[in-house]
Design brief:
Chain lengths: ~675, ~400
């Protein structure tokens, strides 16, 4: 290689060396001369933070706040402290925070390591902290670097945690499935998960606020926001429910259930197993305004306390042994209505001319079906004797109504669909077998007929399930027994307590079936403009002949006032001169207690046993005796006789609403009436 | 070279092609060069992991070891490329360089139209789950081509031939510039000048060449060939105001300030591996690629930065030494082009993170996340080792 090349190579080498030297000098200057081992606070970056605006309130009919908002102070840790690799910082801060919060080191560490929160997000390490902790953290913030206080809006229940949980529902944190359906929701926001909170979520949620904040390199917000776009609070939802009535309805229901649990289970006694009380695990009560379909109270038992953090109770709420407290039994519980269904059968009999109002039947305690195909015997626990329509209602004579079901079946078998399905058609007119379109989730129920039976059996067969009771040929076809069972509200008929209340309300008001209404108004708090939710009739002009209506009303009055009435005992001492009450009891058989379900292990005997549903429907209130203002429906699962268990609960509710002294349930005389 | 039989015998050499044990190929490898490149690569893997594993993808999934695994795979491919390049008789490139040059131009042209890009550039092809960035290959091919051209015309580098060399370099430089990759264009220019200087460029021609370069650059700026954001990047280092609020800064100024803050945060000894707050909290944009040095600066401090700089100096020195030690001018020119390539890229990359050079998208060799660059640089090392081997 020529010498000139060597010189030129050296020039390149020197230039390269100079470049490296200048880099090293600059590095020295930055890292040793001008080093900043503490990151400068002015090294801020802008982050945009969205926050949910306060959720709208849920109010009762007079404006009492049932679900409101409260500020909850939360301690959050920044990402630097959440970084597991910051061992030095952790060792210093964790015991200090644990002391401050009164928790163990392990609890604090667990909260810091919460994997549900992304590694670069701040995480909450303590919620709802005491004023003492707040004072210490705000006044001695320099002693607690990397943590901050944050105010979070949370649901509160000023009218009491116990008021109408199944109606109000609850909220939860937005999850990824919600975000797919609602891309505009905040990932750190809340969403209504059940009840009014869920159905009216779009009204209750406000518009989120947006703030641009400075954060330092450690991720901590510095100073006040650079720029904010305020959000809009959610709209308030005003219910038709009366908080006071609701509270006492819940108390009465609970007391009635407690009473049932202390009473001897007479079904088990007659089956030869004395010494057991009713299990009575659940029940419901609802009060409807017959003039507009307003729900005045809606109670379901077992219940749970309203809470902003319902998921903390997840295990207990979902435990199958706790009989599903989350279920709103008024709207979603499906039951055989028992004798309360005679409201429909009585009208169907007279409408079709099967029975006249005055025609009498001798109730001897048994009924033999007239069909040549099937001569089944239908029993009745009581012998009502010779009864007409009015007495049949008062005494709840099953035999009287069995005959109606049987005769109508004969019409059906003879090809007369209109008369043959008179009970079914009238039941549907009164809202059974279809959703009531109430504001919250509900079940549709079932009004059985031949077409349903065929479809059901075919469906089961296609699923590979043998027809139910396949050894009994009767079940596959529509048989006299099916219509006979239907006539007394048994068999395959399924109703919700709300449907039953709505049907009686339509009878009480003279023929308008209302869409039950839980929400009457939605108010925008920013300008106080209100949107009224109009009352809606599902069906109007349901025609009930006047003489028939009068006979039935007298029958319903006899239930509570005549000595032969099935709820006479429960209403003893009630001043009927001042306040009128119509009633109907029901005792719906749900299976029969069988020896196999009786175990010798105490406490577990009745778990598998299914008992009768105890029903009472009352119509009362207002100034027009012919058109009672309110309907109350009470039922208790596995509670025994309607007159014994459900009727006293209803009496208390009526007394409350009529401003009468309330009669304690254990003081109400016992009776064995159905 | 003194290294001979003292070498570890666990590595079984391939059957010698021409000579005996004393001239075993392994004995003629510059192990210090390999050590320097490998040391930087391993440090690079560590820093790529540290600066990415705690972060999340846009969809929220944690990155974890995603990037470092891909980078390790690139390193393995790079080592294989190094071996192949070393085995290849580089002297055949004296005749083959026009072919390589001719093949590279269409690649650079194609990436402009069918390539993918980010931040205003279209710089790579998608090849299955990987990306191929032809500009990294083009740098190497250009060095070989200029070296080959100068070697053919050694001693006759007059103004006319110089013009041909400038055109040879100018075409790929223009194509790279058209991709939006100003940094690679500068690197190519610097490498070309370095090769020309050693090949015998006259001082007067050098002055003219530099004047032309400056005018072209100036013309590009004035004629708005740059989008605003790119101009911001070039000028960010001029307007450094440490007390400005983040909201008042453009992206480039913000990047530069966070970058400097991270390096300053490291101090003498650094915050500790995987413990740099700015690094772990993703405060420096593009940290695992172009700004990888900020992670070294924050977490390993001046000590770590100096060691890294020392490794780069060792690398440059060994290649320069091979350039000086070979009797073949062609090999020497290739080596000196590569010295310029590595030295300038290190200077430009580290310089921009420390606010002494404009921000351009140049990776830190062997360190920055990116497979094409890793493979191309290891192939370069192989080429140099081959030149040394056949000196």
């Amino acid at each position: 290689m020529p010498d000139t090349s060597r010189v030129r190579l050296s020039i390149v080498g020197v230039v390269v060396m100079a470049l490296f030297c200048s880099l090293l000098a600059r590095l020295w200057f930055l890292q040793v001369r001008n080093s900043t081992t503490n990151v400068q606070i002015n090294d801020e970056s802008i982050r945009t933070v969205h926050n949910d605006s306060p959720r709208g309130l849920i109010l009762d009919r007079s404006g009492t706040v049932l679900a409101g908002n409260q500020v909850v102070w939360t301690v959050i840790a920044d990402p630097a402290l959440r970084n597991k690799n910051n061992a030095k910082l952790r060792a210093q801060m964790v015991p200090k925070l644990a002391r401050l919060l009164g928790e163990s080191d392990a609890q604090v560490t667990k909260a810091l390591n919460d994997e549900r929160v992304g590694p670069l997000q701040p995480a909450a390490i303590a919620q709802n902290v005491s004023p003492r902790v707040r004072t210490i953290l705000s006044e001695q913030s320099h002693d607690y670097p990397h943590v901050a206080l944050q105010a979070i809006d949370e649901r509160s229940y000023p009218a009491g945690a116990t008021v109408a949980p199944q109606v109000l529902g609850y909220t939860g944190l937005v999850d990824s499935a919600d975000l797919k359906r609602h891309p505009d929701y905040l990932s750190n926001g809340t969403i209504g998960r059940a009840g009014i909170e869920q159905v009216y979520d779009s009204e209750l949620r406000g518009t989120p606020s947006t703030a641009e904040v400075n954060v330092n390199p450690a991720g901590v917000v510095v100073g006040s926001p650079v720029h904010t776009i305020p959000g809009k609070p959610g709209h308030d939802v005003q219910l038709t429910i009366d908080a006071g009535v609701q509270r006492s309805v819940q108390q009465s229901l609970q007391a009635g259930i407690a009473q049932a649990q202390q009473e001897d289970n007479v079904d088990l006694v007659s089956a030869g197993f004395p010494g057991h009380t009713y299990r009575a695990p659940a029940g419901s009560a609802v009060v409807l305004d017959t003039t507009n379909g307003n729900v005045v109270a809606m109670a379901s038992y077992p219940t749970y306390p309203n809470s902003a953090n319902i998921s903390a109770e997840y295990n207990s709420l979902m435990n199958p042994h706790n009989d599903d407290p989350l279920l709103n039994r008024v709207t979603s519980g499906l039951y055989a209505p028992g004798s309360t269904f005679k409201l429909i059968t009585a009208q169907a009999a007279v409408d079709t001319g099967t029975r006249s109002i005055d025609q009498t039947i001798d109730d001897t305690g048994t009924y033999t079906a007239t069909s040549s195909l099937d001569h089944k015997q239908f029993g009745s626990p009581d012998k009502a004797g010779v009864v007409d329509l009015q007495e049949a209602i008062t005494k709840s004579s099953d035999v009287y109504f069995y005959g109606i079901g049987d005769l109508l079946y004969q019409q059906w078998a003879a090809g007369n669909k209109a008369s043959g399905y008179a009970i079914q058609n009238l039941a549907r007119d009164f809202g059974f077998g279809a959703k009531t379109k109430v504001d919250v989730d509900e079940s549709a129920g079932l009004v059985p007929d031949a077409e349903w039976r065929k479809a059901f059996v075919t469906h089961e067969h296609n699923l590979g399930i043998e027809p139910y009771k396949s050894n009994e040929q009767g079940y596959i076809q529509w048989e006299p027994g099916d219509n006979i069972n239907l006539s007394v509200g048994q068999g395959d008929l399924l109703v919700t307590p709300l449907q039953l209340a709505d049907a009686y309300a339509a009878f009480a008001n003279g023929g308008t079936l209302w869409q039950p209404r839980l929400v009457q108004k939605i108010v925008d708090p920013s300008n106080n403009s209100a949107k009224t939710i109009a009352t809606q009739a599902l069906r109007s002009g349901i025609n009930v002949r006047d003489d028939l209506r009068q006979a039935m009303l007298q029958g319903f009055q006899g239930v509570v006032q005549q000595t032969a009435g099935t709820a006479y005992a429960a209403f003893q001492g009630f001043n009927f001169n001042q306040n009128f009450v119509y009633g109907k009891t029901g005792t719906a058989q749900v299976g029969t207690p069988v020896p196999q379900c009786i175990s010798t292990t105490p406490g577990h005997q009745l778990d598998k046993c299914i008992g009768d549903t105890s029903w009472f429907v009352g119509m009362f209130g207002g100034s027009d005796q012919n058109h009672p203002r309110y309907v109350v429906v009470v039922n208790v699962e596995q509670g025994g006789f309607g007159g014994r268990i459900a009727a006293p609960v209803a009496r208390q509710i009526i007394e409350k609403m009529e401003h009468l002294p309330e009669t304690p349930i254990p003081d109400i005389p016992a009776s064995a009436d159905r | 070279m003194i290294l001979d039989q003292q070498l570890p015998t666990v590595v079984t050499p391939r059957p010698p092609r021409a000579v005996g044990l004393r001239n075993s190929p392994l004995a003629r490898v510059d192990w210090l060069l390999v050590f320097a490149a490998a040391g930087i690569s391993v440090l690079g893997l560590l820093m790529v992991y540290s600066s990415t594993h705690a972060h999340v993808f846009p969809n929220g999934a944690v990155i974890g070891s995603y990037y470092v695994k891909r980078q390790a795979l690139a390193l393995l491919v790079g080592l294989a490329a190094c071996g192949l390049a070393m085995a290849f008789d580089y002297t055949r490139l004296r005749e083959l360089w026009p072919l390589l040059y001719g093949l590279t131009l269409p690649l650079l042209l194609a990436v402009r139209f069918v390539g993918q890009g980010r931040g205003g550039t279209t710089a790579w092809f998608n090849v299955g789950p990987f990306q191929f960035q032809p500009s990294e290959l083009a740098k190497l091919v250009l060095i070989v081509s200029i070296a080959g051209y100068c070697h053919q015309h050694v001693g006759e580098l007059d103004a006319w031939r110089l013009g041909v060399a400038v055109v040879l370099a100018g075409i790929p430089m223009a194509l790279v510039f058209a991709q939006g990759d100003l940094g690679s264009m500068l690197v190519m220019g610097v490498c070309t000048v370095a090769v020309l200087v050693v090949a015998g460029l006259r001082p007067s021609h050098l002055v003219v060449l530099l004047l032309i370069s400056v005018s072209v650059l100036g013309a590009l700026v004035v004629s708005h060939s740059f989008e605003t954001y790119r101009l911001d990047r070039l000028t960010a280092f001029v307007n450094q105001n440490p007390s400005a609020r983040a909201v008042d800064l453009n992206n480039a100024q913000y990047t530069l300030r966070e970058s400097k803050a991270a390096i300053q945060h490291g101090g003498l000894e650094g915050q500790g591996y995987d413990e740099g707050q700015l690094t772990q909290l993703s405060f420096v944009p593009e940290q695992h690629t172009d700004f990888i040095f900020t992670a070294v600066g924050e977490e390993l401090g001046f000590v770590g930065g100096a060691v890294l700089l020392g490794l780069f100096a060792l690398l440059a020195w060994r290649i320069w030494r091979i350039a000086a030690g070979t009797a073949d001018l062609f090999g020497s020119l290739i080596c000196i082009g590569l010295v310029a390539l590595f030295a300038f890229q290190v200077f430009e990359n580290m310089g921009m993170t420390m606010g002494m050079m404009p921000i351009t998208g140049i990776p830190l060799p062997f360190m920055s996340y990116g497979g094409s660059a890793m493979i191309a640089y290891w192939a370069s090392v192989g080429l140099v080792l081959g030149i040394h081997f056949r000196r």
